[in-house]
């Protein structure tokens, strides 16, 4: 499998190259040169497979010959062996048509573990045959950071530098990052939003005199391998609910458009998805884009669902690439214009094309709190704020009555104890695996939110590319 950049001019890479590179050198994102697809018989054959075996079946076409099937299986068994539920991502029925897909049974209690546990192992495997030290730089609104740090802490040949917006992540999220004291983990708090942190990460990749000194890589969903691993649970859930014989809808709480883009890929691969509901909070750029074509950046409003307090949704570029007929050079022009003006008017023909699969909803704080309360009172389920936004969008959706709707439960309610308590009167208990989180020592540095300051901080600590390498 070859990977091409959404901006058309970076060199095409194989799976290993795209995984280690993270971001394409022309500022674009890597996508497979063509979408692989499964026949209905191949999808039907996934019924009854374990999560790890489903993962192998779904990911093998993307991995190509970078790993043998046995090697890929060994990595999946190891990655998903760290989840505390035998089904890895269990389905929970709420009522006749609504289901939750619990994606928070991994080590850091959010859906990010599903991909990052595997990505940590992929990095280790690919680095084992190279004389390379990886400098991973990432931005987090709370969950990617802790999952990536858990996956990479203590691994040889990798340092991770994780930027988070100071004061804008929950106390559990912050501590899950800052209490990991491995020497290869570097937590950086910046005074700004997640978007500011994400923009700095992209700027570092683009800044030749900095990027040329280190072997940079990414753990955000700009890295294709992240999304690839997230495609798996769409197949796993849909097959359990009757696919390929019955279409299924998914409601996805959305920020960076990564998780829902993985659903889009599942649909391109042949999974019968009736609708993908893109659920946003009041930071609603994606709802505006998909409902009216208005992809223009507003100011970020901090909310009780901080992991979705995002305006610039990196992976939307991957959808735009397909909507532009995969013309990377044309899209590069569009994206450069967007980067300058912070506005993009998506042509109505493209909005119409996207509407075949996507619908969207903007859920305000009252709508979120109502969904949280209702789930507690009617089903005894505590939902984190992000999942509550997804479920509110599922309730609001106009779908045929016989289509099951699966809301992705993206985080454990204990990660957002204050918001859940405000919504339901119940304070979720920290699961055993992080029960002592508030007794652990914290370590992080606060760095001014300028590119120069962050680059200097990293350069003083990262391992440079060896001279002559
Ligand atoms: C708990 C939670 N829900 C939803 C999202 C949004 O996911 P995505 O950025 O893939 O759209 C995030 C952050 O990414 C998250 O941490
Ligand atoms: N909500 C995310 C933001 C980064 O998203 P990613 O999926 O691109 O890594 C977070 O929790 O950090």
TrEMBL record:
<dbReference type="InterPro" id="IPR004450">
    <property type="entry name" value="Thr_synthase-like"/>
</dbReference>
<protein>
    <recommendedName>
        <fullName>Threonine synthase</fullName>
        <ecNumber>4.2.3.1</ecNumber>
    </recommendedName>
</protein>
<feature type="domain" description="Threonine synthase N-terminal">
    <location>
        <begin position="2"/>
        <end position="80"/>
    </location>
</feature>
<dbReference type="InterPro" id="IPR036052">
    <property type="entry name" value="TrpB-like_PALP_sf"/>
</dbReference>
<dbReference type="InterPro" id="IPR037158">
    <property type="entry name" value="Thr_synth_N_sf"/>
</dbReference>
<comment type="pathway">
    <text>Amino-acid biosynthesis; L-threonine biosynthesis; L-threonine from L-aspartate: step 5/5.</text>
</comment>
<dbReference type="GO" id="GO:0004795">
    <property type="term" value="F:threonine synthase activity"/>
</dbReference>
<keyword id="KW-0791">Threonine biosynthesis</keyword>
<dbReference type="Pfam" id="PF00291">
    <property type="entry name" value="PALP"/>
</dbReference>
<dbReference type="InterPro" id="IPR001926">
    <property type="entry name" value="TrpB-like_PALP"/>
</dbReference>
<dbReference type="InterPro" id="IPR051166">
    <property type="entry name" value="Threonine_Synthase"/>
</dbReference>
<dbReference type="InterPro" id="IPR029144">
    <property type="entry name" value="Thr_synth_N"/>
</dbReference>
<dbReference type="InterPro" id="IPR000634">
    <property type="entry name" value="Ser/Thr_deHydtase_PyrdxlP-BS"/>
</dbReference>
<dbReference type="Pfam" id="PF14821">
    <property type="entry name" value="Thr_synth_N"/>
</dbReference>
<keyword id="KW-0456">Lyase</keyword>
<comment type="similarity">
    <text>Belongs to the threonine synthase family.</text>
</comment>
<dbReference type="Pfam" id="PF24857">
    <property type="entry name" value="THR4_C"/>
</dbReference>
<keyword id="KW-0663">Pyridoxal phosphate</keyword>
<feature type="domain" description="Tryptophan synthase beta chain-like PALP">
    <location>
        <begin position="85"/>
        <end position="356"/>
    </location>
</feature>
<keyword id="KW-0028">Amino-acid biosynthesis</keyword>
């Amino acid at each position: 499998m070859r990977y091409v950049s959404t901006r058309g001019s970076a060199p095409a890479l194989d799976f290993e190259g795209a995984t280690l590179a993270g971001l394409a050198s022309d500022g674009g994102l890597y996508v497979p040169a063509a979408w692989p697809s499964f026949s209905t018989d191949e999808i039907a054959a996934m019924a009854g497979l374990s999560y790890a075996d489903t993962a192998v079946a779904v990911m093998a076409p993307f991995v190509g010959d970078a790993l043998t099937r046995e090697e890929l299986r060994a990595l999946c068994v190891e990655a998903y062996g760290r989840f505390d539920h035998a089904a890895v991502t269990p389905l929970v029925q709420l009522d006749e048509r609504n289901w939750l897909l619990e994606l928070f049974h991994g080590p850091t209690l959010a859906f990010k573990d599903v991909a990052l546990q595997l990505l940590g192992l992929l990095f280790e495997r690919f680095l084992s045959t190279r004389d390379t030290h990886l400098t991973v730089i990432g931005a987090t609104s709370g969950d990617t950071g802790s999952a990536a740090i858990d996956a990479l802490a203590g691994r040889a040949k990798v340092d991770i530098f994780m930027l988070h917006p100071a004061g804008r992540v929950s106390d559990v999220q912050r501590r899950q990052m800052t209490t990991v004291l491995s020497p290869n983990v570097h937590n950086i708090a910046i005074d700004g939003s997640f978007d500011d942190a994400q923009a700095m990460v992209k700027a570092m990749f683009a800044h030749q005199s900095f990027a040329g000194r280190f072997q940079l890589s990414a753990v955000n969903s700009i890295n294709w391998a992240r999304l690839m691993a997230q495609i798996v649970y769409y197949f796993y859930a849909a097959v359990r609910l009757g696919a390929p014989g019955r279409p299924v809808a998914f409601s996805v709480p959305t920020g960076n458009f990564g998780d829902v883009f993985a659903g889009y890929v599942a649909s391109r691969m042949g999974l019968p998805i009736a609708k993908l509901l893109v659920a946003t909070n009041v930071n609603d750029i994606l709802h505006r884009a998909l409902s009216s074509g208005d992809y223009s950046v507003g100011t970020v409003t901090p909310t009780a669902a901080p992991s979705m307090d995002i305006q610039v949704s990196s992976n939307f570029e991957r959808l735009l690439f397909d909507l532009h007929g995969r013309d990377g050079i044309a899209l590069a022009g569009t994206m450069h214009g967007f980067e300058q003006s912070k506005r993009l008017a998506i042509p109505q023909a493209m909005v119409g094309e996207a509407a075949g699969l996507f619908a969207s909803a903007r859920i305000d704080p009252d709508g979120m709190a109502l969904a949280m309360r209702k789930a507690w009172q009617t089903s005894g389920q505590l939902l984190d704020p992000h999942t509550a936004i997804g479920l509110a969008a599922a309730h609001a959706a106009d779908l045929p009555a016989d289509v099951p709707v699966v809301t992705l439960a993206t985080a454990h309610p204990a990660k957002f104890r204050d918001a859940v308590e405000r919504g339901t009167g119940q304070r979720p208990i920290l699961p055993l695996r992080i029960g002592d989180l508030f007794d652990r020592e914290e370590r992080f540095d606060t760095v001014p939110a300028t590119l120069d300051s962050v680059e200097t901080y990293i350069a003083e600590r990262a391992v440079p590319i060896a001279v002559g390498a």
